[in-house]
Amino acid sequence: MATPPGARGTAQKTTTHPQVLTGAKLVLPTGTVTDGRLTIDGTKIAAEAPQGTAEVVNLNGWLLPGFVDIHNHGGGGASFSGTADDIETAIRTHRAHGTTTLVASTVTDDMDILVRQAGLLSEFAEQGDLAGIHFEGPFISPCRKGAHSEALLRDPDPAEVRKLVDAARGWAKMVTLATELPGGLDSVRLLVELGVIAAVGHTDATYEQTAQAVDAGATVATHLFNAMPVLGHRSPGPIAALLEDERVTVELINDGTHLHPAALELAFRHAGADRVAFITDAMGAAGVGDGRYLVGPLEVEVSEGVARLVEGGSIAGSTLTLDRAFKRAVTIDRLPVADTVAALSANPARLLGLYDTVGSLEPGKDADLVLLDENFDLKGVMRKGTWVVDPQLG
Fold first, then answer.
1. d(CA 131, CA 101)
2. Which residues form the Amidohydrolase-related domain (predicted)?
3. What is the reported pLDDT for 15?
4. What is the mean pLDDT of the chain?
């Protein structure tokens, strides 16, 4: 196995005795506390430190719960479809940008390759570096394939869906499906039975077909608005069905490329802040820069931070990190800080069934923290009581 992610490339400072973090604005489930105090004891947030034993660390800016990304294909020049070293690099890159809980997303490929990759990714989940695996493809519509190889797409046969889930050894968290395809609804029902999130995405479904999928148990809209029919006044399509149903969490890519600000506002207004999960949908260029990359078997050109297929020009994921998504949300989209924190931390944590351990700053939860300065730029990251990016060294 590769060196544990985070072991190199970012500052590391392990908390060996209790710390009391003071001076920053704490964003709590109950509201924002100015000049708050947060106690860290080992790997956990504590109610209070033993008297006389705690180190007081003075901070400033905003102290938030660590970010939770449920849809991410890679970063740092590497892909979750690559080697163990590639996976380590991608994890380390996003962790240094505040993502302390991360689900690795695959991209459409040959089934045997996906099965092997699921086994490799599950090793990182078993050692605590990933929260699980998201299979995006191959069970998606050729009409809305985006950056997926059309030659490798297939209908969502429940037997093949189960094969991928089984290969993940209990770490399959989500499967994106075009549920209108043959076998789609049966696959949704199977995923529900297996305790895996069924997500509607890369779909050409009608409004009615999408509503059927939600009734069958689908609970996530994969990057809402993208890779699906547009919202029409006579044919509202999947967007209306997914926005209106309270059972559905909608993913949004807030990078300024995938969504017009008005579409973002529409989603927040209609779904409500408790049903939005900001994601990166990042590919290898995240945290690196422009150049040529691979997304699965397809070649991608990244120019001025926008990733597009070399052949065809379709948008091919993003170069986003969640700290940038946070800053854009509060400074450009003018979303309340509390709503943005919910979309980046609490909502995805609840969706994954992890809210008892991550997603908010509460005693007993993992000491996963993000420190931003007054301009909402990243200043520090703590994961399980260890400073991955130490604000005292910055």
1. 6
2. 63-388
3. 56
4. 93
| Encoded tokens for 155 | 């209908």
> What is the mean pLDDT of the segment spanning 275-293?
94
Looking at the fold, whether 217 and 138 belong to one and the same domain comes out as yes
Q: What type of residue is 352?
A: L
pLDDT for the residue numbered 7: 37
Q: Which amino acid is at 268?
A: F
Q: How many domains does the chain have?
A: 2
Write down the pLDDT at residue 393: 66
Residues 273 and 380 in one domain: no
Q: Same structural domain for residues 254 and 213?
A: yes
Tokens at 68, concatenated = 């939770």
Range 133-156 average pLDDT = 94
Spacing of C-alpha 166 from chain mean position: 22
99 and 55 in a common domain: no
Q: How many CB atoms lie within 10 A of CB 50?
A: 11
Shared domain for 49 and 133, answered yes or no, is: no
- Residue 313's pLDDT is 86
Place of tokens 């001076």: 23
Tokens of 216: 């069958």
Question: Could you tell me if residue 287 is inside a domain?
Answer: yes
Structure tokens given for 315: 């948008």
DSSP state string for 259-288 = S-HHHHHHHHHHH-GGGEEEE--B-TTTTT
Per the rule left: phi > 0, alpha: psi between -120 and 50, beta: everything else, 26 is beta
Structural domain span for residue 43: 13-64+359-393
- Residue-level pLDDT at 350: 98
Contact (CB, 8 A) for 69 and 253: no
Residues annotated as part of the active site: 281
